[in-house]
Amino acid sequence: MPETKSYDGGCHCGAVRYRAETDLAQVLSCNCSHCQKRGLMLTFVTPDHFTLLSGGDGLADYQFNKKVIHHLFCPTCGIESFARGRKPDGTEMVAINVRCLDGLDLTTVTTIPIDGRSH
Q1: Which terminus of the chain has a smaller tally of CB atoms within 10 A, N or C?
Q2: Shortest CA distance to 32 belongs to which of 118, 111, 113?
Q3: What pLDDT does residue 7 have?
Q4: Are 53 and 18 in contact (CB under 8 A)?
Q5: How far, CA to CA in Å, does 76 sit from each of 55, 58, 59?
Q6: Which residues on neighbouring strands pair with residue 85, listed in sequence order?
Q7: pTM score, whole prediction
Q8: In what order do the strands lie in the sheet with 27-30?
Q9: How far apart, in whole angstroms, are the C-alpha atoms of residue 80 and residue 40?
């Protein structure tokens, strides 16, 4: 069973920095047009397990389709290191781009394929 750990992460240029607590038990690889083109690998945490450390004032926001997820990205380097939204039941969540977590060996992460293209 994966262990919950605290991870630091952020964008490429370093303007956006955050800390997230997660066990990385469920990392999703979605094939929707947005996730596939950006190469996102996502894990989800509740807002109380996410702390934005810097760069929040300058984030750009992209929404598409049902416009329920705020795909937030650094306007300098263009990296979407996290997103904010709500689950279908209305619960707030933060989607963490696992590729943006510092020092994580991605070969140790098992992904779950999600067919977002069909929804």
Answers
A1: N
A2: 118
A3: 97
A4: yes
A5: 11, 9, 9
A6: 69, 93
A7: 0.90
A8: 60-62, 69-73, 82-86, 92-97, 42-45, 27-30, 111-114
A9: 9
Which CA distances in Å does 49 have to 40, 76, 77? 20, 26, 25
State the residue for tokens 């607590």.
21
CA 56 to CA 81: how far, in whole Å?
Answer: 12
Q: Distance between CA 113 and CA 36 in Å, rounded?
A: 11
Cβ neighbors of 11 (< 8 A, separation 6 or more) are 55, 73, 74, 76, 77, 79, 81, 100
Token pair for 102: 């510092």
Identify the burial level of 30 via C-beta atoms within 10 angstroms of its C-beta, where 0-12 means exposed, 13-18 middle and 19 or more buried: buried
Q: What are phi and psi of 81, to 5 degrees?
A: -90, -15
- Tell me which of 46 and 114 has the higher pLDDT: 46
Query: What is the rounded distance in angstroms from the CA atom of residue 97 to the CA atom of residue 81?
Result: 5
Report the greatest alpha carbon distance in the chain: 38
